[in-house]
């Protein structure tokens, strides 16, 4: 038999994310996490004091994939904003069960605060007043989170009779579920484009 793998924060964090991806945020507990790793729960507390500490590390792992480099390179702010929003959404779409936890805010997570600092700094350097930059960052975050917290199209069933007889303008609603990913992405792009275009007008007027 091979030697048992050494327990580490990275192994604990990665196993926690695997449980969340597979079964949902509510299914994560220190007991289940220990079982996944083949250890006693007490072993986990040598590395993490609480489950929330584990979740903070999982959240940090996810947001490390969010790209704000366009802001750091002083790209045109609408391009940088859209690139950040798309990267942010891609990270959340990869781990949708973590969205409710991430929606709670960055707390003291270094990676999340680094992103907020990069976005805010890029917008202010581009000419946005600090207050407006804060609002834009918050609004973009709301747009991204709203597009990932659930799927509009997957909420429909594929039975034509459910909609045809009672809702005359929804006679094609039974087709939505099969195209959910395409519709969800397209609706996000529509909202993002409209948002950025509106900000361009606001910036020009100011």
CATH classification class of the largest domain: Mainly Alpha
Looking at the overall shape, the CATH architecture of the largest domain is Orthogonal Bundle
- CA-atom Rg in angstroms: 21 Å
**Amino- and carboxy-terminal Cα gap:** 70 Å
Number of helices: 11
Helix content: 55-70%
How many distinct domains? 2
Assign an overall shape.
flat
Report the sheet with the most strands, covering strand number, pairing sense and barrel closure: none
Q: Within the CATH hierarchy, at the fold level, what is the topology of the largest domain?
A: Tetracycline Repressor, domain 2
Report the uncertain regions. Answer: none
Q: What's the CATH H-level superfamily name of the largest domain? A: Tetracycline Repressor, domain 2
Order of helices and strands: HHHHHHHHHHH
| Beta-strand content estimate | under 5%
> Strand tally, please?
0
Average pLDDT works out at: 91
**Overall SS class:** mainly alpha
């Amino acid at each position: 038999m091979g030697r048992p793998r050494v327990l580490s924060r990275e192994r604990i964090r990665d196993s926690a994310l695997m449980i969340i991806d597979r079964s949902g945020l509510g299914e994560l507990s220190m007991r289940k996490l220990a079982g996944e790793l083949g250890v006693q729960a007490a072993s986990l507390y040598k590395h993490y004091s609480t489950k929330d500490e584990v979740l903070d590390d999982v959240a940090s792992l996810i947001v490390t994939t969010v790209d704000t480099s366009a802001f750091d390179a002083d790209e045109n702010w609408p391009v940088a904003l859209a690139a950040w929003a798309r990267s942010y959404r891609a990270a959340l779409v990869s781990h949708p069960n973590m969205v409710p936890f991430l929606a709670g805010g960055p707390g003291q997570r270094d990676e999340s605060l680094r992103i907020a600092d990069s976005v805010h700094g890029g917008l202010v350097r581009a000419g946005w007043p600090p207050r407006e930059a804060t609002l834009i960052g918050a609004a973009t975050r709301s747009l991204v989170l709203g597009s990932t917290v659930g799927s509009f199209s997957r909420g429909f069933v594929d039975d034509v009779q459910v909609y045809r007889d009672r809702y005359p303008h929804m006679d094609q609603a039974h087709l939505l579920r099969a195209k959910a990913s395409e519709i969800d992405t397209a609706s996000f792009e529509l909202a993002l484009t409209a948002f950025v275009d509106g900000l361009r007008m606001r910036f020009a007027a100011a």
